[in-house]
Design a protein that fits this description.
about 30% helix, about 100 residues, 4 strands, alpha+beta
């Protein structure tokens, strides 16, 4: 797995705040929130029975405001289990403090 180790060198300085993965009936969804150099980033991915999560690690800069808006006005965190939004809100509250 040398290619994995090589790719991870770019992420030695990140602080993962939340990583969520859930699946149901051969499909799944992943969300990762991390901090790097004082900025928030998120990564989203999904898969079905035919395709995996490969090639979807594309961090995007985000903000507390954007994440809160997507929780309240959208469906971020309301996936299969429903606990994800509560945990994300707690992390966002700590981040602002």
């Amino acid at each position: 797995y040398d290619h994995v180790d090589e790719n991870m060198k770019d992420y030695d300085d990140i602080n993962v705040l939340l990583a969520f993965y859930e699946y149901e009936d051969y499909s799944g969804w992943a969300f990762v929130l991390f901090e790097r150099n004082g900025l928030l980033y998120e990564v989203n991915g999904s898969h079905c029975s035919c395709y995996g999560l490969e090639g979807q690690w594309e961090p995007e800069e985000t903000s507390v405001e954007a994440l809160r808006h997507r929780i309240q006005a959208g469906n971020l965190g309301s996936g299969y289990g429903g606990w994800f939004a509560d945990d994300l809100q707690k992390i966002l509250n700590k981040w602002e403090a």
